[in-house]
Amino acid sequence: MKMFTKLALVSSxxxxxxxxxxxxxxxxxxxxxxxxxxxNLGIGISKIEIDKVLIHDNDGYTAPATAVATGDIGFxxxxxxxxxxxxxxxxxxxxxxxxxxTAYDTTRMLATGNLADLVIDTDAGRADSASATGNTAFxxxxxxxxxxxxxxxxxxxxxxxxxxxxxxxxxGTGIRRGAEExxxxxxxxxxxxxxxxxxDANIQLGAAPQGAMIMLDTSMIGGxxxxxxxxxxxxxxxxxxxxxxxxxxxxxxxxxxxIKVADAGLADxxxxxxxxxxxxxxxxxxxxxxxxxxxxxxxxxxxxxxxxGSSTAASIGDVEVQGMRTxxxxxxxxxxxxxxxxxxxxxx
Length: 348
Known about the structure:
It contains two helices and 20 strands. By secondary structure, it is mainly beta. It has one domain. Strand 10 (199-206) and strand 11 form a beta hairpin. The radius of gyration is 23 Å and the shape is globular. The two termini are 28 Å apart.
């Protein structure tokens, strides 16, 4: 169940950030910013459509020598470590609709009707800007974002066009590189839909006196809902490993009709998180760190319609989790567990 909570929280933050989904925090949280003269920016986009997003891994995967030698993981005695790509199809980010899909859900929208409202200020960061006590100037962006309906189509893995040396333009069409989806493609997720409520956050670039580049301390009105999530397994599609002779077996799928996440005993979801980009230090080349908070009562999670085999299989029932809390240990010292989750993302 921890996987689902992390997925929900990280997906919510990542997609909200990419949609400029930030909202003004309260006065106490913004005490380090002047909040006076500045720029007000309203973003009136009602829908964003993306045909395809590809994430290329240019050096592929090198399997352990023992696995290659025995063919345990299907490399057939060799592994060329060829570039592959995660392929995300048919992304639609739109203003929230009601359950019937016949009108906007105004309870999950900003009063202005905008996708996002931003308040942008710059500040010296100290009263005496001529002081030699260090660089403290920063840019402050306080933002509000409307709730969103986010639909993501099938997600799969494929071979990158051009292999390990491929780059923009490898496909011969403009700057596209693409993937070899016709003859080397496997689905890993059948797709999913997200429904978010109004959110708020604060971004500071420069000295960032708030202690992080992005701070979220808000409630997602109506909680977070993920629908039609399917985890796809292609390992037995050819019918070889289970001893059968079925050559056209459909891929297997673990399908969840919906996942709802909210604060324990409530309908809304508290979102508390900080996002930092940590720079190079010695042999460590840096990383992105996301630290999310968990309320003391925890979160309630309701998973509806768990189906094994395919999305049309009979449901084995619903799963309900009450008051789930996660902890992390920032100092790695025994007994120093802290409510929340720390996620570190880096390249290799």
